Amino acid sequence: MYGWAIPPPKPPTKTPEEFLQERLQKVAELEVRGFLTSPLLKAAMEKVPREDFIPPLYRDYAYLEVPLPLPGEATISCPHSYPLFYEALGLGAGDRFLEVGAGSGYGAALAWEVVGEAGLVVTVEIDPETHAFAWDNLRALGYGRVEVVLGDGSLGYPPRAPYDRICFTAAAPEVPPPLLAQLAPGGHLIGPVGRPHYVQDLVLIIRQDTDKFQRTVVETVAYIPLRGIYGF
Ligand SMILES: C[S@@+](CC[C@H](N)C(=O)[O-])C[C@H]1O[C@@H](n2cnc3c(N)ncnc32)[C@H](O)[C@@H]1O
Question: How many Å lie between the centroid of ligand 1 and the Cα of residue 168?
Answer without folding.
Answer: 8
